[in-house]
Amino acid sequence: MTEPEFAPQSARSRPLWLVPQGEDGPVWPEGVDRGFAEASGFAGKAGQLCLLPGEGGVAGALFGLGRAAEPAGRPPRERFALARAAEALPAGAWRIAGAPQGHDMAQAALGWLFAQYRFARYKAAEPPAARLVCPEGVDRAALLAMAAGEYLARDLINTPASDMGPADLEQAARDLAARHGAAVDVVAGSALAQGFPMIAAVGRAAGPGRAPRLIDLRFRGEGPAVTLVGKGVCFDTGGLDIKPSASMLLMKKDMGGAANVLGLAETLARMGRAGGLRVLIPAVENSVGPDSFRPGDVLTSRKGLTVEINNTDAEGRLILADALAYGAEARPALMVSMATLTGAARVALGPDLPPFFCDDDAAAEALFRAGRDHADPIWRMPFWEPYEAMIEPAIADLDNAPSGGFAGAITAALFLRRFAAGAGIYAHFDIYGWQPAAAPGRPKGGAGQGMRAILHALPRIV
């Protein structure tokens, strides 16, 4: 995994001023040659960059912030705007020499670190050559920890299924455990079939070396009992209800929930906050083969509830159900599931704003506010009780894919909640895990979603 880095504090650096637009034009910082900037057409527009000349070449730069969002509290149209400067500035060390009062310097610096990320496993890819000196007054170690968690999640999602099967996902968990002194247990084979029958059923058609398993990662030390459960479908053909080829192109990202919980665990461990943390990942490949589970089958879950299979492409909730039931047996104070689960969530909120579900109003408010305040937006949706009947078929306790096409994200969340009973507080995140088009600090490809919202909300929940 590539390590995020700031420029050394001792590095010779050039100044970068962050310039907002006021009512009458740019709000010029003191000591800047505004004549040159004006002659260059610099107006402080969002993302605008002006390089300032000096005796040795470029002496500094101005970066436009645009107008403040109105009304107050409205999210900006671009997260991590300063990341544009990271991509465009000349090589060398840069320091933020001035910014408007109240500007979030930690978020600006984090966006710069996010812009440094490159996925270089299969071809060379140099990161931007401009490096930032960490601004004074921000928690450098925390920013590096958050960036490291994001890098890990992106790396795992970006890796194709040929190199990121269930065994590879297990190895990623073992590597994380080795870095931070955690313990890993893995349930596979006959023990999986006996103790986690739905995980075994979904993954049993996979080829040699790609057998299903449950990965159980535990961190030592004191801390609140928090369990993170991440969907680890390393590739999803849809099973016998096979997807069209176009729908399979991004299915390497169907383990994005697992990638996100591992990324969050990496961040918590680097911050010294992983004591009491447990991570459960049901890792499978949903393949087509002679042993595929079938539409119309009835599976018996770890919890004892029976599930009628109306669509083998609704497999994520099946493997999560067994993992959630197992996690709930320990009665954690908080249990969180993260999964690239439903297309309905994308239809409702798009790729950039993942929904989450939580019955506890105080916890839900803490999660929403943390996401808003730390540029990791999420949106609460309801466990809508009247839809419970939609997941109750005629011949089994539950239906994995209710017909009708309505409220798909909600019915999936209601299904999962049945298996999370026993946890103190339960929250479910239906993430996309993918950035479909490049944006500042967020290159096209695998993406973390909800990690920082959970990270910053945890002290207020448990």
UniProtKB/TrEMBL annotation:
PANTHER family assigned: LEUCINE AMINOPEPTIDASE-RELATED (PTHR11963), PEPTIDASE B (PTHR11963:SF20)
Entry's Gene Ontology cellular component terms: cytoplasm
Region annotated Disordered, chain positions: 1-24
InterPro entries noted in UniProt: Leucine_aapep/pepB, Macro_dom-like, Peptidase_M17_C, Peptidase_M17_N_1
SUPFAM superfamilies: Macro domain-like (SSF52949), Zn-dependent exopeptidases (SSF53187)
Domain of life: Bacteria
Protein name: Leucyl aminopeptidase
Alphabetically ordered keywords of this record: Aminopeptidase, Hydrolase, Manganese, Protease
Single annotated GO MF: metalloaminopeptidase activity
Keyword Hydrolase set for record: yes
Family: Belongs to the peptidase M17 family.
A Pfam family this chain is assigned to: Peptidase_M17_N_1
BP-aspect Gene Ontology terms: proteolysis
Domain named Cytosol aminopeptidase: residues: 311-318
